[in-house]
Design goal:
Helix content: 40-55%
Largest sheet: 5 strands, parallel
Radius of gyration: 16 Å
Number of helices: 10
CATH superfamily: Toll/interleukin-1 receptor homology (TIR) domain
Order of helices and strands: HEHHEHEHEHHHEHH
Structural class: alpha/beta
Strand content: 5-15%
């Protein structure tokens, strides 16, 4: 089973950022809800990306988080050629994750969604496990910000990605890796501090 490109995916594959792609520091930015995925799927995915020479940004400071996303994370998103959003059951519970997703989509680069044990239609409509989270946010966050977050979830849910319920986990990771490497073959890369495996792609 392979991921298919949709009009939405094409939209978020092209960069509207004025920064030339060859200046990107990171190949991939990982957005995920740590409580759901940090010590299983994300760890396996991160290890496989790094093993294949993909410069991958993973936020490991998830325990001490405030209400606002850290400026360093915004910069990492903007300095990444592509992003993978692993949207799990508690993803929308985190204002931080929702803000990451909004920024990722605003950058209009390749965004690959993984629907991790959730229904893509629930992501698109903010139903199921996400409904109560958004109702809660509406009580404590400005209406404009919540609309922005809803828009991000709707767009992410509309992109053809990977539904974990239909995949063996190892095959899902390999499919993601194949897609990312294909993208990077067509994108001038930033130079990582230790650019393992990049020469063959260049």
């Amino acid at each position: 089973m392979a991921a298919h490109t949709t009009d939405d995916e094409t939209t978020y594959s092209s960069s509207s950022n004025s920064t030339p792609s060859y200046r990107f520091k990171w190949d991939v930015f990982l957005s995920f809800r740590g409580e759901d995925t940090r010590h299983n799927f994300i760890q396996l995915l991160y290890n496989e990306l790094v093993r294949n020479g993909v410069a991958t940004f993973r936020d490991d400071e998830g325990l001490q988080r405030g209400e606002e996303i850290a400026p360093s994370l915004v910069e990492a998103i903007k300095d990444s050629a592509a992003s993978v959003a692993v949207i799990s059951e508690r993803y929308a519970d985190s204002k931080w994750c929702l803000e990451e997703l909004a920024v990722i989509l605003e950058c209009k680069r390749l965004m690959l969604p993984v629907f991790y044990e959730v229904d893509p239609s629930d992501v698109r409509r903010q139903k199921g496990p996400f409904e109560m989270d958004f109702r809660s946010h509406e009580q404590h966050v400005s209406a404009d910000k919540v609309r922005r977050w809803r828009d991000g979830m709707s767009k992410a849910g509309g992109i053809s990605g990977w539904d974990s319920k239909n995949w063996d986990e190892s095959k899902l990771i390999q499919s993601l890796l194949k897609k990312i490497l294909a993208k990077l073959n067509d994108t001038p890369l930033g130079v990582a501090k230790y650019p393992v495996g990049l020469s063959s792609r260049l």
